[in-house]
Sequence to fold (371 residues):
Amino acid sequence: MRAVGIIFSNIHDDNVPELVQVRTLGSIPFGGRYRLIDFPLSNMVNSGIDTVGIITKSNYQSLMDHVGSGKDWDLARKDGGLIILPPFGNNESHTLYTSRLEALKGITNFLFRADEEYVVMSDCDSVSRINFNDVIEFHIRNRADITLVYKKFKASEDYARNSYNLSVGTDGRVHGVNVITGTEEGENNVFINVFVMKRTLLQNIVMDSISHNKSHFMSDVIASSLKAMNIYAYEHKGFYAGINSLQSYYNSNMALLDYKNRTELFGDRSVFTKIRDSAPTKYGNSAVVKNSMIADGCVIEGEVENSIIFRNVKVTRGCVVKNSVIMQNTVLGENCTINCIITDKNVTIKDRRVLSGSENHPFYISKGTMI
Fold:
């Protein structure tokens, strides 16, 4: 069951405009030391997929710096491995893509050169651990043409925003696809943007979309083919966090402070990322840390509670940090108070500043800001 992987790094950039001003969605820092692309990429590597194409659109310098040659995921290979697929990939691509199907039109050469039987496609807007071998086995067992992966959520939950609800029969077949409005009652089968199908079928879909000027994968392909093709849905029952707003980004980071969620996601240390070789974190005599995740290379002299602290952050004496996400190379001055704050990289907050958001409306500070 050989498969090739395709990861869309930019598809959902519009959902978190604050965090993608200087990067793609896939390179947004998450969980203290990771980037969002680490999760689908690690899922593919752990499932034995050794050829992965990453589709990019714009603003992807930080993404290329992070993934490099793919060495940290064991994808630095002569045959296959990690392949960056920039826009304008063929002579018919004259504009930046605006949808998944348009992005696939730009990588037709990659699809035709691959020789794997199946293709697994995933976005970078989700944090989860999925064994794609189980999904492919489900796909084969049900003789499906296309398999979609979903997670059960209430429509009111933030993770369901801007998503599709799949109407799934008792046999697992998809009978309907609808946009979630937030007014639905009970649990919804929320599509988490993971597809499995044969590579030749995807090639035919892309070529047909070019000839018929189709542009949207879900509405023009999936929804219109529910009767013509066997489209099935596989339920993911493990931890899942969707990044579709600044609020959901904050909630997803805070969810990692729950031991059960953290164990489900990182239990066997199978999530890989770029190795930095930083020094261990130094804790001063006055440091107090409660229920927090702190990466390496930090200096903690103040109080940290219910927070995610990335690499090389300095929390000076008298500083109190609560319920916050503090990204790399941030310096927090003496006697300042930080609550429900998201700081991007290289932020400096001077002495005796008091900054506070709320749990349902965190305050975001952009990269390189000094306050």
